[in-house]
Design a protein that fits this description.
Blueprint (H helix, E strand, L loop, with lengths): L1 E6 L2 E8 L4 E5 L13 H4 L4 E5 L16 H15 L4 E6 L1 H13 L4 E7 L18 H13 L1 H11 L7 H11 L4 H13 L13 E6 L7 H10 L3 E6 L6 H4 L1 H14 L2
Parallel strand pairs: 3-4, 3-5, 5-6, 6-7, 7-8
Antiparallel strand pairs: 1-2, 2-4
Helix pairs in contact: 2-3, 4-5, 4-7, 5-6
Length: 268
C-alpha cells in the first residue's frame, strides 16, 4: 500500500501501476478507488495508472475537516506535486468531476493533458434556472437525514440505483463496505458541499480536451446533463454508453476503456 501526505495529518492512499503519461482516476462521493478495479490492468499497459482515494474516503485517513470539493482539489494538486507528475490525464467520476473542475479553476491547465468526465452535472443542485439538477433542498435534507439515521439500508438502495443491471451479492457486499468506511458525520458534510457547488459559469473557460461519458439509463443524472456540458465546454466530445447507468466504467468496462484510450491517443 502507498500513501502520500498532502497536508499535516492528511494521508491519501493510492494504487499505482505502469509507466508513461500519468492518468489519475478520481471517484465519487462516499466511494473509493476500488470502483476502478477494471481500469488498472488495462490502462497500466500504456500509462502510469493511479487510482486515488480522496481525503476521508476509502483507505485514506478520515479527518473531520477539509471535506469540501475545493480542498479535495487542493489535495489533488499536492498529490501531483509530491509524485512529480507531468502532463496528467484526470478522470473524474460523479463528484470526482467537481474535483477535476475545481482543480482547473484553482491551478489552471498547465500540467493537464486532458480530462475525462463520467456522469456528472455542472451542478447537482436544482437551482431556479437549472431544472435538470439532481437535488432540490427537500431531497438533500432527506438524504442527509438518511445518512445519519438509516445509513446501511439507504446506501444499499443508493448503490443499486447506480447500475442498469442487478448487482451480484458479492459486488453489493464489497461496495457497501467501501461506502460505509467513513463516519456518518463526514459523509453528511461532503454530501452537502458537493451538492451545492456550481461550475456552470466556469465550463466555457475549460480548454483542455474533454471526454464526456454518460450512461443512457442513468436514474438521477440525465443524458441532458452531458449534452449541457458538451454545449458549454469547448473542445469536448460526448459519448453515451447504451447499456450503463451511473457507472459505465464498470457496466461496460471494455468499451469504456477503449473509448477513453482512443480519446487520449487521438484527442477530440
Amino acid at each position: 500500500m502507498a500513501f502520500v501526505e498532502v497536508e499535516e495529518g492528511v494521508r491519501l492512499f493510492y494504487e499505482e501501476k505502469g509507466q508513461g503519461r500519468p492518468i489519475i482516476f478520481i471517484h465519487g462521493v462516499w466511494m473509493s478507488s476500488r470502483f476502478f478495479k477494471s481500469q488498472l490492468p488495462y490502462f497500466s499497459e500504456k500509462y502510469r495508472t493511479i487510482l486515488l482515494d480522496l481525503r476521508s474516503h476509502g483507505q485514506s485517513n478520515h479527518v473531520h475537516y477539509g471535506n469540501t470539493v475545493s480542498v479535495y482539489a487542493k489535495d489533488l494538486h499536492a498529490f501531483i506535486g509530491e509524485l512529480g507528475l507531468k502532463d496528467v490525464i484526470l478522470v473524474g467520476w460523479s463528484m470526482g468531476a467537481f474535483v477535476v473542475w475545481d482543480y482547473l479553476k484553482q491551478f489552471g491547465e498547465g500540467n493537464i493533458h486532458s480530462t475525462v468526465i463520467v456522469d456528472e452535472l455542472a451542478t447537482d443542485f436544482k437551482w431556479p434556472d437549472f431544472h435538470i439538477g439532481a437535488f432540490d433542498m427537500e431531497t438533500l435534507i432527506a438524504f442527509m437525514t438518511e445518512i445519519q439515521t438509516n445509513r446501511t439500508p439507504f446506501l444499499q438502495k443508493f448503490l443499486a440505483s447506480m447500475f442498469n443491471n442487478e448487482l451480484s451479492a458479492e459486488d453489493a457486499g464489497w461496495m457497501l463496505g467501501e461506502v460505509t468506511r467513513m463516519p456518518e458525520s463526514i459523509a453528511g458534510s461532503i454530501l452537502f458541499d458537493q451538492s451545492i457547488v456550481d461550475y456552470r459559469d466556469f465550463l466555457p473557460a475549460i480548454n483542455v480536451p474533454t471526454l464526456l461519458c454518460f450512461g443512457r439509463h442513468e436514474k438521477v443524472i440525465p443524458v441532458a446533463a452531458g449534452e449541457h456540458l458538451h454545449k458549454n465546454i469547448p473542445n469536448s466530445k460526448l459519448v453515451i454508453f447504451e447499456d450503463s447507468c451511473h457507472c459505465p466504467f464498470m457496466e461496460e468496462s471494455d468499451l469504456f476503456n477503449e473509448t477513453v484510450n482512443c480519446f487520449i491517443q487521438k484527442g477530440v
